[in-house]
Design brief:
407 residues; 15 helices; mainly alpha
Amino acid sequence: MSLVRPVPPTAILVAVTMTGPLALNIFLPSMPHMVRVFDTDYATIQLTLTLYLAGVAVGQLIYGPLSDKYGRRPVLLAGLALYVVSSVVALIAPSVEFLILGRVVQAVGGCAGMVLTRAIVRDVHGRDRAASVLAYIVMAMAVAPAVSPAIGGYLDAWFGWHATFIAIAVFGAVVLAGAWRWLHETNFQRIESVNLGGMLQAYGRLLRQPVYMGYALSVAFSTGAFFAFIGGAPYVVIEVIHGTPQDYGIYFILVSIGYMSGSFIAGRLTMRYGVDRMIAIGIAISSAGVLALIAGLIFQPFSLVALFGPMGVIAMGNGTSQPSGVSGAVSVDPTLAGSASGLLGFLQMALGGLLTLILGHVLSDSAGPLVFMMTACTVLGLAAFLMVRRSRLRAARATLSEVRSGD
């Protein structure tokens, strides 16, 4: 008798996915101000972002295999509990080092929702349907990065930086209670063991599959353009354009509207056009945004509109392509959906952390380094997707050759 996988409420999946992005984005407007609060430099404060991304990256490598062995529900609940506790730890930080530590642990807890939502959706849906469902979840989830920088900017201005961590802790507690009540188990095909050797074997198996790596790297590089932006844009807005944290929060809404629009397009069209075609459409849209960003840097004095307008187009392209890229990656080997999701998330966040670390040291009086990194990420994302196409073409030719030789 086959077990029926209950489909979790979409609202719960959206909420648990929002925890990580909320904690990431709500703190961004406070970063330049934190330099004075803790009497340090911007490169040190940048570590609250860079190491947050590193924590998310490493955490996803762990959650994926654990959920393949023990199930999605208990692993997710444990991550959400860690998220709430670490938010309180960051809230009472007496020094910048303590704050960085709290952010790392917060990231490890918050990434549970990010990685496990993808696996849960793949548990209960086929590849194209999973891409469509993920697109709608991402569209709704994009509310977090849309409003959280604005909320963070005003909380910092009105009550101080502590208020942002109070908001994160309260939200995390509410989501934990909701997940405990309404999120049911979806993984009924458990792996037999989870240990370091087994984890390495599973990841090695995925890394050796060109189709998986093509999808995963395509998603990672498109996400890299976004992380390069959030790593460098606060500095560019405040130090180069001479805006305010509130300006950053308000204009960032354009980015989230773009991402939500792309996700809506993906949700409506993926079932009709399929995963690969939606990735190609998304990359084309992002490329147009990158060209507009370069033109804005070259042909006019750089402004908030010249920065956030093209980024909104890039985000639309990412929203169009990423759900299909994720679904394609986690569908390569359904028995390792959790591990595939975790490795994908690791690649995304590791690249994002590296880009923010570099930007923290190379940004000075120009937005040039930021524009260059975003351009490079878009080009490399296209190259990774072409790797998928070439691998599929080689496999088709090999199959045809075997059929002909058999005849």
